[in-house]
DNA sequence: CGAACAAGTCAATGGCGTTGACAAAAGTGT
DNA sequence: ACACTTTTGTCAACGCCATTGACTTGTTCG
């Protein structure tokens, strides 16, 4: 229950409900500072020393508001998670709703990879998360799935987007050298693969760099939703059949 | 390039092809020690000091075999990749080949969650990785895709299985408290969701705990391969059409 | 007003990756 | 066998990190 950090386990016991101490430092201001720092200087900049410097405050002052760095990162993640649904409007077709929502989810997470990496495997159980689950389950119900079927596809879609974002975010948090090395692997080393031992790689090598991250995600999501839609249609057909034979 | 660590950039210039120095320290022994350490004490245990302690060697001795920690992690990752292919036999149908290989990939990674977390995001560009890529591209070629199409589905399938394993592995490496807390979220807090605000969650709640990790992965993979197969058939049909009209 | 306590500061701890200087062992050429 | 070069393990140190305990200062409430 990371919350805003106001609660148990914070240095100096419980906090009064005032608007900041003598430096005007609040969990909200800290989280905002962290996001600014992440956006400006990258994931490696998220250290207590640099956050403190950015806010004009002693680094250890942050411990008055967050128990440790993990709680701080989760608070940042919470703030971002809310943004996914901030101005989200369900579409009139269930498939468009799912596609829009999952795509937005990815964009928000990838805007802040450091927070994403640490939070994809966690369940926050806060209001924003529940609202998102409700929307997805609603879309699947609209597709025609009964609850016991819907939960299966719900888990597939959620785990898919979370894990995919986790992978992309982890990649973004790599150091610059490691990342450029990995990127060169595709265009250089795979292109130089011996055609006798790796014929298919040799044939595919020219096209490997043409795949973009956005296109890759879009295709994966499209493949999944295609299958879900197909099964929804089949499910509806068998239900209709059962109804027809029952009458 | 990075290879086993024997190569450029390693402290002390190039190395002779002897079987270890005066302590019998080799890149292979180091990697094995790392995996043992990861399995036993988790991902945070992978520090030069602890590796050195585990191998009975000065921590900085590792720099004679690996330029930096990144290169070491890559070597560990490739060892895992290699285990996926150790006794793998391609099936006679391309879909079975893909399904078997990706399923094996998951099993190997989840057997060493700590190592998996560190390696899923990396492209190792070593032999084992290339062999796996070749198999997947070969299966897609067998499905009827030309290289420029095959690379798209290759990237989808690989990124899917890597990211999925990363998420599951990250979950397995969470502390016991965090994990049980997250598990309770599904059965307790979601079950107690107010039915007026979250009607679909309320309806689905009883079925949420019935989803297993294995079944979840199997379903996701099945959905993806269904779509890939469908597109392969459609692609073959349009090619046949073009041939028919060309004659 | 004064006691209680929150909130910021300071100094210090131990761990991390990494580096440079050094010593000992192992190979190499004569 | 000898001097040589190169490898490879060791040692001490640097700067960074998160985190802690003891302090000071400001705020707030009885």
TrEMBL record, chains A, B:
SUPFAM superfamilies attached to this UniProt entry: Homeodomain-like (SSF46689), Tetracyclin repressor-like, C-terminal domain (SSF48498)
UniProt domain HTH tetR-type: residue ranges: 24-84
Entry keyword set: DNA-binding, Transcription, Transcription regulation
Renumbered residue ranges of the record's region Disordered: 1-25
Record flagged with keyword DNA-binding: yes
InterPro entries: Homeodomain-like_sf (IPR009057), HTH-type_TetR-like_transc_reg (IPR050109), HTH_TetR (IPR001647), Repressor_TetR_C (IPR004111), Tet_transcr_reg_TetR-rel_C_sf (IPR036271)
Keyword Transcription regulation listed: yes
GO molecular function, one term: transcription cis-regulatory region binding
Comp. bias (Gly residues): 1-10
Gene Ontology biological process terms from the UniProt entry: negative regulation of DNA-templated transcription
DNA-binding region: 47-66
PANTHER family referenced in this protein's UniProt entry, alphabetically: HTH-TYPE TRANSCRIPTIONAL REGULATOR RUTR (PTHR30055), TRANSCRIPTIONAL REGULATORY PROTEIN (PTHR30055:SF151)
Name by which UniProt lists this protein: TetR/AcrR family transcriptional regulator
Species in which this protein is naturally found: Yinghuangia soli
């Amino acid at each position: 229950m990371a919350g805003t950090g106001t609660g148990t386990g914070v240095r100096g016991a419980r906090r009064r409900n005032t608007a900041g101490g003598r430096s005007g430092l609040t969990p909200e201001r800290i989280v905002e500072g962290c996001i600014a720092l992440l956006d400006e200087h990258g994931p490696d900049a998220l250290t207590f020393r640099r956050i403190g410097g950015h806010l004009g405050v002693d680094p250890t002052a942050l411990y008055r508001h967050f128990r440790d760095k993990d709680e701080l990162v989760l608070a940042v993640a919470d703030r971002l998670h809310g943004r996914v649904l901030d101005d989200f409007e369900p579409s009139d077709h269930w498939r468009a709703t799912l596609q829009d929502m999952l795509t937005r989810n990815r964009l928000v997470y990838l805007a802040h990879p450091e927070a994403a990496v640490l939070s994809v495997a966690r369940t926050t159980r806060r209001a924003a998360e529940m609202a998102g689950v409700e929307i997805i389950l609603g879309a699947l119900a609209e597709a025609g799935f009964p609850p016991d079927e819907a939960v299966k596809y719900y888990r597939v879609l959620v785990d898919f987007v979370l894990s995919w974002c986790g992978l992309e975010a982890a990649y973004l948090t790599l150091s610059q050298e490691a990342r450029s090395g990995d990127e060169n692997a595709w265009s250089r080393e795979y292109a130089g693969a011996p055609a006798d031992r790796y014929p298919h790689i040799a044939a595919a090598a020219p096209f490997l760099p043409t795949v973009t991250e956005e296109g890759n995600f879009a295709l994966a999501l499209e493949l999944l939703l295609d299958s879900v839609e197909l099964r929804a249609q089949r499910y509806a057909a068998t239900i209709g059949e059962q109804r027809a034979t029952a009458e």
